[in-house]
Amino acid sequence: MSLRSKALILIFTINLLLVATLYAVFAQNWLQTIHRYEQDAIQRDLQRVEKAIGRELDNLSAITGDWAIYDETYQFVQDLNPAFIETNPTPSTFANLSLNLIAIVALDGKMAYAGFFDLQKGEFSPLPSELLKELTPDGVLLNHPNPDSEIKGLLPVNDRYLMVASRPILTSAKQGPIRGAVIFGRFLDAAVEAALAEQTQTAVHLFTIEEASSDPKLETILRQMGIGFPPPAGDQANPAPTQIVINQQTVAGLPDPARFTSDARPAAHH
Fold this sequence. Notes:
With 270 residues, the chain is α+β, with helices and mostly antiparallel strands. It has helices spanning 3-68, 71-79, 82-87, 91-97, 129-132, 190-200, 209-213, 216-224, and strands spanning 101-106, 111-118, 123-125, 150-157, 160-168, 180-187, 206-208, 242-246, 249-254, 259-263. It folds into 2 domains: 61-189 and 258-263, PAS domain (Beta-Lactamase), CATH 3.30.450.20; 194-251, no CATH class. The protein is elongated, with a radius of gyration of 27 Å.
């Protein structure tokens, strides 16, 4: 083989290696760009879903306030007039407002009324223990320091999440003293998922972290995102947050048993 041929082969080999190296670098950068774009898109979707859930909680709180700031409720929590039960928290009320929970509780924790309704079956069922322990004087749902306060958030109930809102019981003129709280609840079920999907134009499916961890694909994604799993039984020193997974991504971290937001602005003085 002549010297010229050897030189051409060497040049060709070097150029081939250079092209291969440039392609590898370009491909890696391109993949990283795509990955960043996908992550940014996911974060935007998650933010839209989080805001949509926030709006659902705001609407639930507003409906709760309609019942809490009401002369008949204010009187009922004191005299327990059965006529109030007969005409207000009826099955049709639960169905029309898409509610799973209506509770009216006095300041001392006395349960004036509590109904837990299955919207699919159209029937009442006993209150779950997770709810009962929150409907006590020490529970966060009854902690209303002033007439303007509101409490709303997500509560794990029966392996699902219940959107809950609590408002202080006042007269229709929004006068006190506060006599207790009205608490409304609605499960994050398929109907709510569909509403969230329509609002956000994003396919939405909700999982608890426990459910997601039992799915190999979701478990892999959660670990890639650095999301921990619940600690083994008995290890309560540093309980891991419970997560909600939407579209195989995390939308919100909730401490166990629940996280509530409380808007307890000081009452205005005139």
